[in-house]
């Protein structure tokens, strides 16, 4: 598997805080790669390190075959880290011309095309000081992509966008990966978005990768059996701690290979099965399970210790 | 890479009309307005005195030599007012990316040293434009003198020394650039627009006090190594005196000390800024 990023034991400490804790990760060329994790997991620190904005404390990494911060490699990357900021006295068009010059020049026709593609044609001559967060995000995406990079890093690319904008951004990211062959790495807290757009994900916690793989594999491994049965108590007795109540049904954490045997055991125990169907885990389930966070009050519920 | 950085910074500065106006154009405009007002007041007072004493006009029809504007502009190119207002441009150019949080956008597109050198190049161009604007203002000052006083104009280059003009202009230019480089170092180290503005100003103010009344008090002669190295303003004055010799000859070695001083005051801030910037965390701005 050809990779665009190879990270081995990367560490970044701020005082006594380890933002990256011996992180090891390989990101393949092509497709959309998602980086997930709770706040403070190290996602932004990793992005900033890969872009050469900060120096790692230890470990090593290569980006596009070059060392971190190698200008030749960095110039082949596009990035948008958090909500981008621009000189307030410039218009959207001027921002792209300015950044284009720094990169060796981007033809004005391509700048116009990017303004159109991110929906900023009508606002192209407005000063950015009056832009909404969503408009700044769109301009940031155009700035990241207009130099035709081979690798794009997007940190929360849909933050502050309205639903149509989010849909457009999702389509843009997929088309860049599928049609233009650009490798895209994105971090987002919107897990449904990540599930829809990413091919692979890595879940971070406390500066380390705790799970990595294809989205389809990760969600498949969390498949569960939903059973409408009577009596519930007898079924619970058969399934033990593999079952949890979901209203008047049971959710059983049973691998597909054991499903037939489980149903047979229920029937033999006198349980009447009205309905049995597979329900897939979504990325949110995987995320919550792997990071051990409820996502509601930020309270660790399980498995939090194995992350650190 | 450097060319790209220069183009990029020049484009951005050209869009920042407020900074360009205050730094490059305001001082010449104030000079023109003040000059015209001065000529009108002088003419009015002079006419009133002449009428009262029944005297002929003081300068009669003696022509105003516009060539003097060249020497005036070269000698006063690095005047205090222009230096202070040029700091506005220096702060905007050198600290703008910290103020607007745009280093993370721009630093991925070019090498860090090239980006800083591009900014220095643009500041040098702004200094040149400011001096040209002062030259135009000086011409307008002399023309307004002739117009207000009703005197003829001439352009007599018989006493004009081209070498002296160029060297004096070069010294003024170096002084402006050197002053701005303090703003560069202050901007990179502090990441602050205000520091880029006020550190050179405060340093210049302190140096002017030391270079004036205090130097004799603490026992330094103006052409000592200590005075020349610590006070670039004195080094600048020494070189100006060498270019336009006065009645008092300069002590032996004074010119060399002044050249060393100005060179160090230009090179050290650039080298220190680049070294600091290379290791700087640009994710927090």
Automatic annotation (TrEMBL), chain A:
The ABC transporter domain, residue ranges: 5-231
Gene3D superfamilies xref list: P-loop containing nucleotide triphosphate hydrolases
Alphabetized InterPro entries for the sequence: AAA+_ATPase, ABC_transporter-like_ATP-bd, ABC_transporter-like_CS, P-loop_NTPase
Pfam families referenced in this protein's UniProt entry, alphabetically: ABC_tran
Entry GO MF terms: ATP binding; ATP hydrolysis activity
Alphabetical keyword list: ATP-binding, Nucleotide-binding, Transport
Family of the protein in this entry: Belongs to the ABC transporter superfamily.
Protein name per the record: ABC-2 type transport system ATP-binding protein
UniProt organism field: Brevundimonas mediterranea
TrEMBL record, chain B:
Transmembrane segments: 20-41, 80-100, 121-143, 163-186, 193-210, 254-277
Domain of life according to the entry: Bacteria
Keyword terms of this UniProt record: Membrane, Transmembrane, Transmembrane helix
Official protein name in the record: ABC-2 type transport system permease protein
Species of origin: Brevundimonas mediterranea
């Amino acid at each position: 598997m050809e990779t665009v990023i190879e990270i081995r034991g990367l560490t970044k400490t701020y005082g006594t805080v380890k933002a990256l804790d011996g992180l090891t990760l390989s990101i393949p060329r092509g497709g959309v790669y998602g980086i997930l994790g709770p706040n403070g997991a190290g996602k932004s620190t990793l992005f900033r390190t890969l872009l050469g904005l900060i120096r790692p404390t230890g470990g090593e990494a290569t980006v596009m075959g070059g060392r971190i911060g190698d200008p030749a490699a960095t110039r082949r990357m596009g990035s948008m880290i958090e909500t981008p900021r621009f000189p307030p006295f410039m218009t959207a068009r001027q921002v792209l011309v300015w950044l284009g010059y720094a990169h060796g020049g981007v033809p004005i026709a391509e700048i116009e095309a990017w303004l159109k593609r991110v929906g900023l044609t009508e606002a192209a001559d407005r000063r950015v000081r009056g832009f909404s967060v969503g408009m700044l995000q769109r301009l940031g995406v155009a700035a990241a992509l207009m130099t035709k990079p081979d690798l794009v890093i997007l940190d929360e690319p849909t933050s502050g966008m309205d639903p149509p904008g989010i849909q457009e951004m999702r389509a843009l990211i997929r088309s860049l990966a599928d049609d233009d062959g650009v490798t895209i790495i994105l971090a987002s807290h919107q897990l449904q978005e990540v599930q829809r757009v990413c091919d692979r994900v890595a879940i971070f916690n406390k500066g380390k990768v705790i799970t990595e793989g294809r989205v389809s594999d990760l969600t498949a491994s969390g498949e569960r059996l939903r059973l409408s049965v009577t009596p519930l108590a007898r079924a619970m007795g058969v399934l033990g701690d593999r079952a949890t109540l979901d209203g008047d049904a049971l959710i059983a954490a049973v691998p597909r290979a054991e499903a037939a045997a489980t149903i047979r055991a229920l029937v033999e125990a006198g349980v009447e099965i009205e309905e049995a169907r597979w329900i897939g885990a979504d990325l949110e389930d995987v995320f919550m399970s792997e990071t051990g966070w409820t996502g509601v009050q930020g309270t660790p519920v399980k498995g939090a210790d194995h992350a650190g | 890479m450097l060319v790209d950085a220069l183009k990029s910074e020049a484009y951005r500065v050209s869009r920042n009309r407020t900074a360009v106006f205050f730094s490059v154009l305001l001082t010449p405009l104030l000079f023109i307005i003040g000059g015209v007002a001065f000529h009108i007041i002088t003419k009015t007072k002079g006419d009133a005195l002449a009428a009262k004493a029944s005297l002929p006009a003081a300068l009669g029809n003696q022509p105003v030599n516009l060539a003097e504007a060249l020497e005036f502009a070269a000698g006063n190119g690095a005047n205090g007012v222009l230096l202070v207002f040029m700091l506005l441009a220096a702060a905007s150019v050198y600290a703008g990316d910290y103020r607007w949080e745009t280093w993370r956008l721009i630093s991925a597109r070019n090498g860090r040293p090239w980006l800083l050198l591009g900014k220095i190049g643009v500041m040098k161009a702004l200094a040149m434009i400011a001096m040209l604007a002062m030259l135009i203002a000086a011409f307008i000052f002399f023309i307004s003198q002739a117009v207000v006083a009703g005197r003829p104009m001439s352009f007599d280059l018989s006493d004009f020394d081209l070498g002296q003009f160029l060297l004096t202009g070069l010294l003024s230019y170096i002084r402006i650039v050197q002053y701005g480089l303090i703003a560069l170092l202050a901007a990179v180290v502090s990441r602050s627009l205000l520091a880029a503005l006020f550190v050179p100003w405060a340093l210049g103010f302190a140096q002017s006090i030391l270079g004036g009344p205090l130097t004799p008090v603490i026992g330094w002669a103006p052409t000592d190594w200590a005075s020349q190295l610590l006070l670039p303003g004195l080094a600048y004055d020494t070189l100006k005196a060498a270019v336009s010799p006065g009645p008092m000859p300069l002590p032996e070695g004074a010119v060399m000390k002044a050249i060393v001083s100005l060179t160090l005051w230009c090179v050290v801030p650039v080298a220190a800024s680049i070294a600091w910037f290379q290791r700087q965390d640009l994710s927090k701005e």
